[in-house]
Amino acid sequence: MTTKREATLFMALLPILILIALLTFNVLLFDDTLSGANQIALMLAAAIAGLVAYRLGYGWDSVRKKIVATIGSAMPSILILLLIGSLAGTWLISGVVPAMIYYGLDIISPKLFLFTAVVVSAIVSVATGSSWSTIATIGVALLGIGQAIGINEAIVAGAIISGAYFGDKMSPLSDTTNLAPAMAGTDLFTHIRYMTFTTVPSMTITLIIFLVIGFNYDFSNASIDVQNVKTAVDATFNTSPLLFLVPVILLTVIVLKVPPLPSLLIGTLLGGIFAIIFQPDVIRSIAGDIENYTTASYYSVMQAMFGDVSLTTTNENVNDLLSTSGMRGMLDTVWLILSAMVFGGVMESAGLLRRITQPIVKYAKSTGSLVASTVGTCIFFNTTASDQYIALVVPGRMYKKTYEDKGLKPEVLSRTLEDSGTITSVLIPWNTCGATQSRVLGVDTWAYAPYAFFNIISPFMTILFAYLNIKIRRLVKTEPGPEEIQNPTGSI
Known about the structure:
Layout: H1 9-29, H2 37-55, H3 60-93, H4 96-107, H5 113-128, H6 131-149, H7 153-170, H8 175-184, H9 188-215, H10 222-236, H11 245-255, H12 260-278, H13 280-287, H14 293-306, E1 309-310, H15 316-321, E2 323-324, H16 331-349, H17 352-362, H18 367-384, H19 388-405, H20 410-424, H21 432-441, H22 445-448, H23 453-467, H24 482-486
Antiparallel strand pairs: 1-2
Helix pairs in contact: 1-2, 1-17, 2-16, 3-6, 3-12, 3-14, 3-16, 4-6, 4-10, 5-6, 5-7, 5-9, 6-7, 6-21, 7-9, 7-20, 8-19, 8-20, 9-20, 9-23, 11-12, 13-14, 16-21, 17-18, 18-19, 18-20, 18-23, 19-20, 20-23
């Protein structure tokens, strides 16, 4: 048997350094890095990691098993992603998304739009427990409204994502909100209550920023654009309040704790049914020469679920909103996720990720530095393992004993995991979350990331609270001793 050895820090970092170099070249050379360049970069970096693993004595079978297991952990996300593609298609041809845009333009004030987008996305995400479902449904409609008003799509996407990830973090229905306390060893509602101390200030700052942006934005042409958009939508679709039954039913199903896959399938099928009932002209337009309405309906709904649909109106800006690629449009993202999981699996199989984080744990001497180290580790795993679940589970396992030894309650760890692992995943283009939301909204991750203020502020807020020793719960409540009085920043 081959003796397995531990990697040096340089050996563990080598695949990551090569990956960073390849991704940098891709950004400089390719217009659309998600169409294949980043996937190949991840595979090449995985090959380098495989050579390192072989050099350390790890055989192909053990590496392959870890790759398969890692891909298996991502399969629920991949299936959800494919169904989101289908849902987007049927909600378009049914008129659900166009109706949201049509009526939303009447209700939402341009100056308050970004503020409203954050709040609405947050409410829906808290109710459903899913940032992905929120962004794929309400988020898509909000993006269309923002574009019609004339706001840069990257800013709108940042507002939507900020609200959606607030809800994903705070909802008791969210999988990550249940996973983080499970890893840290606390209960769900203690975890949620404790998160409010850092989450509410982060969201407050986010809302203030979007209010300032909204009140200083130039909306001089907004009224003309809004009327043109409404006219184009009304000429193409039978807009009716009855179309809102589809999202209401879907949200009800999700709140009733029906799992994500059947929930999204129900939403997709409802969209198809409402398209057949309410949008006969759209059905015939997509079906082309097919005269029989039953056959045309089947063809159009199927086309919307799996392939390209593009509806033409009198307004070119609206035409950009009324196009979808169904499941097919998600295949590049699926490819990216699979490539990322291969890279993460190889890195984990040889203990390379663990080797990189060992020095971080070793030198964390104070509460502030320990929390900052946990945040950095979560972001590191979001970047290298490309999956938010890994970014919660692995650091949670790594730091649990350290937090106990330092006298910190488990909710301190669970809050830190959520403030960094859950929140920053959507800012990484090759992470499952970043890749998915970029594809669903049609906005590049690098474009919306600077405006996802809640996601940027949250990890800094949790570090600030730790260094200032604000709301840091300890296992044993004691009177402050001389050392604590001299070191009020939380040194342990």
